Amino acid sequence: MSITKVVAIGSAITLAATDHSYHLRGTNRQLQVDLPDSTPSPSSATSYPMPSWAPTLVPTLIPTDDKRNQTTSNLSKNNHKNRKKEKKRKLASLFTKENIITTIVILLLLQLLHRINKKYIQNKKFKRFEQKVIRKTEAEQKKEKAAEKAKAEAPPPPPPPSEAKQREAIAAVIDELKEKVAKSALEQTDPQEEKQEEKQEVAKMQLRLALNFYHGKGTTKNDEQALRWFTESAKNKNAEAQYHAGLMHHSGEGTNKDISKAFKYYKDSAEQGNANAQYAVGHCCNNEVDETLIYDEELNKKVKDYKKMFESWKKSAEQGHTMAQYRLGQCYLVGKDTPKNYDEAFKWHKKAAKQGHDKSQHILGDMYANGEGTTKNLQKAFKWHRKAAKQGHDESQHILGLMYYHGDGTTQNYQKAFEWVKKSAKQGNAQAQHNLGFMYYHGKGTSKNYQKAYTHFLIYDYLEKEKHTAN
């Protein structure tokens, strides 16, 4: 190191002897020198000239810089905390009890206004539609009256012409027809067909209006008005309207109960292929409606027309009517107006079961368990009984419990057996009451409880006696 550099460093050290830390300006390096208190000041250093290239040493305190950095950091943290507190305070001021209640009230009022407005619009639309249907109906009635009047006022037919004249007239008509056919026979539409289409269109509008009155859609529910428009539509041979008019007469909605009128409407609708009406006709035959009874010479009295009932249900079942499929399956199963046929019974009960009919699901489970109309399959029997049991069928619940108990078609499980038998017993199934008592007595699927077992045995005994008394 040269003498000038040493002198410069010594001079700097002398100027700030009290501070033991030095910072080289323009660099990040620090120089720290520990000097004893008795060290003499190098006064002789001033006699040497300081070169221009010598670095200038500026005294600085490291602790002071650290404090400044810490202070800045603390201030930023405090500011951040204060901002957070301010946000929380503002949010808290928004979510006061009074503000929340006010908001809820405003929302409820808006919802109410929306509903009122929606109902008003629906009523307005309904009224316009009702007026349109009334105008169309009145126009149709006027046309019918005009046609009847024209028919009544038509002049009597002229006397028959002589044979020669008749031949000439026929030849002229034939020639005229040939010309018309040659020109535009295919392009012309039949006015009678147009009239029929127009009637059907009016009938559909009348049916829609009747359904709106019946269900209270867009207006207040009104059975009298619903029946009126079902009847108007039925006059125009609308099958759906005929069926609904029959239903209302059958149940006495909007009018006095009249099974005879109901059956007439059902029959008219069924003849047009309405599946619901076909089922209803079969139902009337099965329930001895006067119009359906037939005279039996051997018995010398009127009896049910099982043949008509079976035919009506079959037509309805073929169109996918669930109840008709169930009834038809039962007819084949017990041989009602048809020979017993387990294959057909299985076929129709399976169709109804797939549509969710709980009774058909129960019967299908029995048929799989007994191998009737199909191969015996306990797994499938378990599957269908479980479906029926989940829908609340008490017999299937009891059978499902027994299948869990014995492990038929499933893994043996006393706890589940107990659960399903208990569900069936709650619905008043006598056998389930007995088996529930048995499970309490032996502690199967539950803890032993002789008192509960005795109670369920008594209930079973009471239900059985009541059943025998009723029979």
Q: Would you give an account of this structure?
A:
The protein is mainly alpha-helical and 471 residues long. Among the domains are: 89 residues, no CATH class; 80 residues, Serine Threonine Protein Phosphatase 5, Tetratricopeptide repeat, CATH 1.25.40. It is built from 18 helices and 5 strands. The strands form 2 sheets. A 3-stranded antiparallel sheet has the order 2-1-3, with no helix packed on it. It has a two-stranded antiparallel ribbon with strand order 4-5. A hairpin with a 4-residue loop joins β4 and β5. The protein is flat and about 125 Å long.
Oligomer: single chain
Radius of gyration of CA atoms, rounded to a whole number: 50 Å
How many individual helices? 18
Unreliable residue stretches: 16-39, 42-48
Q: Major sheet, described briefly?
A: 3 strands, antiparallel
Helix content: 55-70%
A few lines on this structure:
With 471 residues, the chain is mostly helical.
Question: How are the secondary structure elements laid out?
Answer:
Blueprint: H1 3-15, E1 21-24, E2 30-32, E3 57-59, H2 62-94, H3 97-153, H4 163-184, H5 191-215, H6 223-235, H7 239-251, H8 259-271, H9 275-286, E4 294-296, E5 301-303, H10 306-318, H11 322-334, H12 342-354, H13 358-370, H14 378-390, H15 394-406, H16 414-426, H17 430-442, H18 450-470
Antiparallel strand pairs: 1-2, 1-3, 4-5
Q: What distinguishing features does this structure have?
A:
about 475 residues; mainly alpha; Serine Threonine Protein Phosphatase 5, Tetratricopeptide repeat; 3-stranded antiparallel β-sheet; two-stranded antiparallel sheet; 5 strands; about 5% strand
